[in-house]
């Protein structure tokens, strides 16, 4: 089990001053990535009459991190350790999903986690771009049905489901609830994209990575999935969070090797050559239109602008300039964006 | 004859009780206490079935009171029942403590090898930066 991660160390101000104790315990148990979790149940409400928005002040991400001088001491003792931040909220209204993107303070947090309360909101969360983790209250019965279509969407988006294990350690009745909830989730998602984390309130409730994997087996995961849920799935969450922040508003160009293109041009028949001549004589407006269509197609398939790129190559003569085409394509994509919006 | 196969959980006992003034934590864990603590959790979690199935093989076969290392044996077919009960242990005897699994082995010998390696690494990390004159100290591993 390489690189185990602990995705949920609660550190809101109500939870007391033992955050350092818990982090220390987690590091001594062998975790390499520690995620400080700021849990704020309600942070965004919308008044119905006036349409005014009311927000609860959310502390900056740097405030909940372990202070530098203490972290340096930890770093001397344990190698390859890393700390991240996470924001968790309860979603009771569709407007709150909107609030996730609006609030400035939230941009400082690495991971965003949500806890939906109804079936519809759960579906919203599964299809949202702004969510990394969907979490559940393991101390109570989950108040809605979990349906396969929404789960499929979530798997497609790379959103993970979190099971917290510390209630199971705390108390026998809570243990029954958490086993029941875990089985309910796992029967639908079949053990894919599941993350195990503590959500502990005291240092005593933390357990080592292999023990957590054992608990995962108790929850109904199989052996390989249980080990993944502590290590590689957690890494996937961190990567997803990073990708979510960086990928918005950028276009990815996939460039095919030059050798392939020349071969293609050689293999093209005479009829295509004729068409090349005709297309080069086309009016600029029409070529624009064809490009727009190509780009739109690309968006749907996700195969970004490769086909339109090739199209353009065919339109031009053999002595084309590579950079020229790239820049013109990017210009076109800009114009398309304007038209869309 | 078919060999009866076992699995051995190698665990470290981590005491979590409050420190008393001036004195460091009292150890005093015995094999019997650890066995009783784990057995209670198996009873709570898996009930009479779990108890009955494990009756022949379940035991604590090694405990080092100096390093707080403990080895728990269970039959191979049902060792998961013990494994899932281990994280739920909160108290051993009268002292608050929990178990941290570090290895799951098929034989006592493989666990011993792992333990020696583990202890060597621990000594190495603990004495890092400290000049150890006696080379034997570095080789010390309480296997």
CATH domain class of chain B = Alpha Beta
Identify the overall geometry of chain A.
globular
Q: What structural class do you assign from the helix and strand content of chain A?
A: alpha/beta
- The first-to-last residue Cα distance of chain B is 32 Å
Characterize the largest beta sheet of chain A: strand count, sense, and whether it forms a barrel. 7 strands, parallel
How is the biggest beta sheet of chain B arranged?
A: 5 strands, antiparallel
Helix content of chain B: 25-40%
Which chain pair has the greatest contact?
A: A-B, 17 and 17 residues
Q: Tell how many strands the DSSP assignment of chain A holds.
A: 9
SSE topology string of chain B: EHEEHEEHH
Question: In whole angstroms, how far apart are the ends of chain A?
Answer: 47 Å
Architecture (CATH level 2) name of chain B: 2-Layer Sandwich
- Widest beta sheet: strand line-up of chain A: 1-2-5-6-7-8-9
Q: What fraction of residues of chain A sit in β-strands?
A: 5-15%
CATH superfamily of chain B: Ribonuclease P, Pop5 subunit
Count of distinct structural domains of chain A: 2
Number of strands of chain B: 5
Name the average pLDDT of chain B.
Answer: 81
Main location (chain B): nucleus
Subcellular location (chain B): Nucleus, Nucleolus
Keywords (chain B): Nucleus, rRNA processing, tRNA processing
GO molecular function (chain B): ribonuclease P RNA binding
């Amino acid at each position: 089990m390489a690189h185990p991660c602990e995705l949920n160390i609660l550190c809101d101000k109500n939870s007391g001053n033992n955050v350092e104790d818990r982090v220390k315990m987690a590091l001594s148990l062998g975790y390499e990535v520690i995620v400080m979790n700021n849990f704020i149940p309600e942070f965004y409400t919308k008044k119905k009459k006036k349409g005014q928005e009311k927000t609860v002040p959310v502390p900056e991400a740097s405030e909940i991190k372990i202070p530098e001088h203490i972290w340096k001491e930890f770093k001397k003792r344990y190698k390859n350790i890393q700390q991240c931040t996470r924001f968790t909220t309860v979603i009771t209204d569709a407007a709150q999903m909107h609030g996730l993107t609006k609030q400035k303070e939230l941009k400082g947090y690495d991971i965003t986690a949500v806890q939906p309360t109804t079936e519809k909101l759960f579906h919203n969360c599964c299809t949202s771009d702004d969510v990394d983790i969907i979490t559940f209250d393991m101390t109570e019965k989950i108040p809605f049905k979990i349906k396969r279509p929404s789960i499929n969407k979530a798997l497609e988006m790379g959103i993970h489901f979190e099971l917290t294990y510390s209630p199971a350690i705390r108390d026998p009745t809570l243990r029954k609830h958490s086993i029941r909830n875990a089985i309910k989730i796992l029967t639908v998602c079949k053990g894919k994209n599941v993350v195990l984390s503590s959500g502990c309130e005291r240092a005593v409730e933390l357990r080592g990575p292999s023990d957590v994997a054992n608990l995962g087996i108790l929850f109904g995961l199989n052996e390989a999935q249980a080990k993944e849920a502590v290590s590689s799935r957690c890494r996937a969450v961190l990567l997803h969070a990073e990708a979510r922040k960086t990928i918005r508003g950028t276009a990815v160009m996939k460039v095919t090797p030059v050798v392939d293109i020349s071969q293609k041009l050689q293999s093209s028949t005479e009829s295509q050559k004729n068409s090349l001549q005709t297309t080069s004589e086309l009016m600029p407006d029409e070529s624009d239109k064809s490009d727009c269509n190509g780009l739109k197609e690309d968006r749907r398939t996700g195969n970004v602008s490769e086909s339109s790129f090739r199209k353009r190559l065919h339109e031009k003569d053999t002595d084309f300039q590579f950079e020229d085409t790239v820049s013109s394509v990017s210009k076109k994509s800009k114009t398309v964006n304007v038209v869309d919006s | 004859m078919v060999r009866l196969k076992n699995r051995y959980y190698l665990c470290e006992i981590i005491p979590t009780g409050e420190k008393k003034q001036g004195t460091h934590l009292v150890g005093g864990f015995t094999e019997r206490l650890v066995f009783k603590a784990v057995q209670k959790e198996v009873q709570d979690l898996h009930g009479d079935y779990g108890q009955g199935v494990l009756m022949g093989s379940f035991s604590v076969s090694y405990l080092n009171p100096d390093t707080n290392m403990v080895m728990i044996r269970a039959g191979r077919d049902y060792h998961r029942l013990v494994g899932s009960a281990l994280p739920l242990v909160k108290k051993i005897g009268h002292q608050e403590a929990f178990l941290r699994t570090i290895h799951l082995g098929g034989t006592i010998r493989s666990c011993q090898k792992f333990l020696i390696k583990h202890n060597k690494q621990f000594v190495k990390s603990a004495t890092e930066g400290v000049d150890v004159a006696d080379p034997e100290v570095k080789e010390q591993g309480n296997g």
